[in-house]
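Box S1 | Example of a co-folding query
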Amino acid sequence: MRNIVILTGAGISAESGLGTFRDAGGLWTQYDLEEVATPEGFARNPALVHEFYNARRANCRAARPNAAHFALARLQREWPGEVLIVTQNVDDLHERAGARNVIHMHGELARALCGACGHRWDAPEVMAPDDRCPACGARATRPDVVWFGEMPYRMDEIGAALARADLFAAIGTSGTVYPAAGFVAEAAMAGAHTVELNLEPSATAGAFDEVITGPATEIVPAWVE
Ligand code: BV8
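Box S1 (continued) | Returned holo structure for BV8
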């Protein structure tokens, strides 16, 4: 069990007070995904999209990492092989718990991107449609997150890690968004042992060798033990 790949979703940050997407009262029940998490929605109403991400950026700053985030950071420190955390989350709670080897495949709330020149920088607390890119001056700034229909980041690195994984764990994800939901099949093809840790079995639970259910702050520290 040398190389471990861990995929995390909104469920690992739920007990830190950050909303999930598809649970009762989740983000996609308050906002229409098409309006706030697609390039078309941003083109139609950038003010609404900035409002959505400004609110989440404020929530994220007020939130604290929980025992599950700390347990994964400890596993990274103490495990003799590689432990890669691939997160679908745009919050920085893994890093704030001390995790080092983290890939944000859906981008980061803390980063801004210029739609005109591709420049990236640390996002201000509040972003607005009139903001100018610090590099090219264009009024084309957006949150540096991956919307539906956009290519997730660092997919080749993720594919390479899955191809050499001995253990793949998915934590707090509903298994409904691709390509992340397909990682378990890639890891299994590479011969990895696969385990799902989730509040309840996900849509893809059947694809895992092992399913552990319960709140992340309880089952993740116990699993890391
Ligand atoms: C792409 C970033 C191609 C922004 C997000 C039909 C079939 C297959 C695929 C598609 C299709 N139609 C469209 C697609 C593609 C689409 C997709 O998969 N759509 C789905 C909805 C069907 N995917 C894409 O568009 C992706 N891009 O395919 O590009 C391409 C190819 C070439 C060139 C260009 C493009 C991009 C997807 C990324 C979208 N961005 N977010 C933002 O955050 O605002 S997705 C969004 O959903 C978040 O990233 C989130 O992480 C992700 C997944 O959600 P989860 O994390 O799983 O959260 P969820 O609420 O769903 O579940 C929470 C889980 O936690 C639950 O299971 C719950 O039980 C559990 N839980 C709750 N509390 C706890 C807990 N567990 C433990 N403890 C607790 N306390």
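The chain has nine helices and nine strands. Strands lie at 4-8, 83-87, 102-104, 107-114, 120-122, 141-145, 167-171, 193-198, 210-213.
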